[in-house]
Amino acid sequence: MPELPEVEVVRRGLHAHVVGHVVQAVRVTHPRSVRRHAPGADDLVAGLTGRQVAEACRRGKFLWLTFRQRNGKNGWQPTGTALVVHLGMSGQMLVQPASAPLPRHTHIVASLSGDEQLRFVDQRTFGSWTLSPLVSVAGSTVPELVAHIARDPLDPLFDEDAVVALLRRKHSEIKRVLLDQTVISGIGNIYADEALWRAGIHGRRLASSLTKPVLRGVLDAVRAVLADALAAGGTSFDALYVNVNGQSGYFDRSLAVYGRENQPCPRCGASIRREKFANRSSAFCPRCQPPPRARR
DNA sequence: TATATCTCCTGCGGGC
DNA sequence: TGCCCGCAGGAGATAT
């Protein structure tokens, strides 16, 4: 599933293969993939056609491209609008030759200068493309659609003291808070489980019950697991996550608890357990991560 | 206002 | 073999 490391791998691919290209044409074949763009598919197509890709950016799991438009004979000027892409659970951004066969579940095709195509492939259609104006928020320029998303742990301006203080005020389970993209962004179910295992904290512990040093340890674990996964090219359980060239990452081979139910904990040997948590699954080591005592 | 739960969606695997 | 059901989960909408 695409979380921060997977989205960053895609961003780097877009930076290398798409920046500088001009969008020649756009075709939307599945309306659900542009459902968040309120003015509709035609408006999105018009907003992209003829624009030159300027930058590929990311915050948390949100990805966006900025553009330039022709300014008479003097060249190009910024448009002030970004294409916000969310991969959802199964979205892929593939850069392929126009002559290559279209993969199944291709929902949007942007033809680029140089006979390449940027293809949005999304089996479960949780992902989307949306145009959004760029705005200035807390010293950064981001699409309006992303303005409510907190900085991620790999952001140079990530304020650990502020996040720890915010976590201390949350009367909710620590895993639930780690998944809240308005508190800290980029973490999904897989890396939340892995980081909590590294920190030795059970996901059902209340964030407000953890001390500052413990919360700093959790954030250190989050940073470490994200960095390790990024170095491995991301996590792939199946063909649902690939980079812009269609290749998978290798971090699934390094996972300690996620997807390892009933297998031994790499640290203590106890059997990894899985339980239902907030409509999804949670994996943990019952010895390294003792559950909290039942609350009344 | 803060927190919890529901909903969207498709492919796969297991059970019958 | 074919059908049905549960599972996977990000984020916005809705409920408490």
- Give the structural class: alpha+beta
Q: Specify the helix fraction band.
A: 10-25%
The helix tally amounts to: 6
Radius of gyration: 20 Å
The strand order across the widest sheet is 2-3-4-8-9
Please indicate the percent range of residues in DSSP E strands (runs of 2 or more). 25-35%
The beta-strand count equals: 11
Order of helices and strands: HEHEEEEEEEEHHHHEE
What is the rounded distance between the termini? Answer: 35 Å
The overall average pLDDT, rounded, is 90
Q: What global shape is seen?
A: globular
List low-confidence stretches: none
> What does the main sheet amount to?
5 strands, antiparallel
List keywords for this structure.
6 helices, 4-stranded antiparallel beta sheet, DNA-binding, globular, 5-stranded antiparallel beta sheet, alpha+beta
What report would you give on this structure?
By secondary structure, the chain is α+β, with helices and mostly antiparallel strands. The protein is built from six helices and eleven strands. The protein has helices at residues 4-17, 41-48, 160-168, 174-178, 189-199, 212-231, and strands at residues 23-28, 52-59, 62-70, 76-86, 91-97, 106-112, 116-122, 128-137, 140-143, 273-277, 280-284. Strands 2-3-4-8-9 form a five-stranded antiparallel β-sheet. The protein has a four-stranded antiparallel β-sheet with strand order 1-6-7-5, with helices on one face. Strand 10 (273-277) and strand 11 form a beta hairpin. The longest helix is centred in the C-terminal third of the chain and has 20 residues, at 212-231. It is globular and about 65 Å long. The chain starts with a helix and ends in a 12-residue tail after the last strand. It binds a DNA duplex (16 and 16 nucleotides) through loops.
